[in-house]
Specification:
The protein is α/β, with parallel strands linked by helices and about 425 residues long. Helix content is about 40%, strand content about 20%. The chain folds into two domains: about 120 residues, 2-Layer Sandwich (Enolase-like, domain 1), CATH 3.30.390.10; about 280 residues, Alpha-Beta Barrel (TIM Barrel), CATH 3.20.20.120. Helix 7 packs parallel to helix 8.
């Protein structure tokens, strides 16, 4: 046993220049670990509560000083003296101290910062890599990177309703090889944009976001397919495309209204939206679709899963929000076949892991994911290996806060050596 001696917190800035919570936990032996908490722009309605100050004179109300006070004045007294290695007990104690189902009393960002910092300090105390401490001796699976190469929706100013277009290189020989191949495609895509004299500026997650785009998501998919071919790879075999539709952002009054983001965009019923998604998988090398429908449209999700689930990975993000109960409902109602895991959606490491285990036990694929407002903390890279998630979303090969996760996975791959396994879904 090693006791928690102190807990402290500070306000740092995330990748959008907004305040974020950073926590340090020190053990009785003097070991000190640190963790920080990201924030999303496109958020599900059932996500845990992110506590902000609301003072418009400071960071437009987005300060986190209230969360810091809760950590130092309310959370610390509850867990100082507890066993550092009792992660479940620590997380449970914080949830009890909060006393709300969505962590709206203390703030999920406050609770999660402490939860992650405790785990990192515990790993350091034992002299173990974080992925080994969290995942045990069989933590050896390197995730397939889902690299964001084109940003739309609320993540950029590009006139495209879909939020993310990603590359998936599951057929590579290793994680490092997957990054190398993906980098070739990104370079080819940049060349295509430059040849058209389009902007090569990037969005929140590092993907290109040209405002000159016309033709919406189909135009992007055509361009990505061409980039894969230009890179010397075969679309659908060497490289596939994943979509984050983020349908909530353009779903209003029962209609999927593409005109909110795209000039002359269509307005589709749920049945038409399902048909459109199916059409995209037939015309393009798309094998993964996230949040293709609105988060509370359970019956429509059942229909989509029944019609497309055998062929395509259907990912629930806003649908499940890393919530055990929502995933259990999805399993019972046969909605989606994969889940995004974002620790800040649920608020503790323990609850995130519980949801991952429920997914694996019901043959749902899991994808550990970043947020659009990220920090340079690479915790999710270790978490992806620890959980054997098989996939990770961490943005493009651009912007330091995104690349930090991929660099950490390269280090882990090197540490694992010949025991490393890549391409869990071959």
């Amino acid at each position: 046993m090693s006791e928690i001696r102190s807990v402290s917190a500070r306000e740092i800035l995330d990748s959008r220049g907004n305040p974020a919570v950073e926590v340090e936990v020190e053990s009785a032996a003097g070991t000190c670990g640190r963790a920080s908490v990201p924030a999303g722009a496109s958020t599900g309605g059932a996500e845990a509560f992110e506590l902000r100050d609301g003072d418009r004179k400071r960071y437009e109300g987005k300060g986190v000083r209230k969360a810091l006070r809760n950590i130092e004045e309310l959370i610390a007294p509850e867990i100082v003296g507890m066993d550092l290695f009792d992660q479940c007990g620590i997380d449970q104690e914080m949830c009890l101290a909060d006393g709300t189902p969505d962590k709206s009393s203390l703030g999920a960002n406050a609770i999660l910062g402490v939860s992650l910092a405790c785990a990192r300090t515990a790993a350091m105390e034992l002299g173990l890599p974080l992925y080994r401490y969290l995942g045990g001796s069989n933590a050896k699976y390197l995730p397939v990177p889902m690299l964001n190469v084109f940003n739309g929706g609320v993540h950029s100013g590009a006139p495209c309703a879909f939020q993310e277009f990603m590359l998936r290189c599951a057929q590579a020989d290793s994680f490092s090889d997957a990054l190398c191949r993906s980098r070739r495609v990104i370079s080819a895509l940049r060349q295509l944009l430059e040849e058209r004299k389009w902007s090569v500026a990037v969005g929140d997650e590092g993907g290109f976001a040209p405002h000159e785009l016309r033709g919406g998501c189909c135009a992007v998919l055509e361009m990505l397919t061409s980039a894969i071919e230009r890179a010397g790879l075969t679309p659908g075999e060497d490289m596939t495309i994943a979509l984050d539709v983020a349908a909530n952002s353009f779903f209003h009054d029962g209609i999927y209204d593409y005109s909110l983001f795209e000039e002359n965009g269509a307005k589709l019923t749920a049945a038409e939206q399902i048909g459109f998604l199916k059409e995209l998988t037939l015309k393009f090398p798309v094998d993964s679709i996230e949040d293709g429908l609105a988060e509370e449209s359970w019956q429509d999700w059942r229909t989509l899963t029944a019609e497309l689930g055998e062929k395509c990975q259907l990912v629930g993000d806003d649908l499940f929000v890393t919530n055990f109960q929502r995933l259990r409902k999805g399993v019972e109602e046969k909605c989606a076949n994969a889940i995004l895991l974002k620790p800040n959606q649920i608020g503790t490491l323990t609850e995130c892991c519980d949801t991952a285990f429920l997914a694996h036990n019901n043959n749902y694929r899991t994808i550990v994911s970043h947020r659009s407002g990220e920090t340079c903390d690479p915790f999710i890279a270790d978490l992806a290996v620890a959980l054997g998630s098989g996939q990770i979303k961490a943005g493009s090969l651009a912007r330091g806060e995104r690349v930090a996760k991929y660099n950490q996975l390269l280090r882990i791959e090197e540490q694992l050596g010949e025991t490393a396994v890549y391409g869990l879904f071959k």
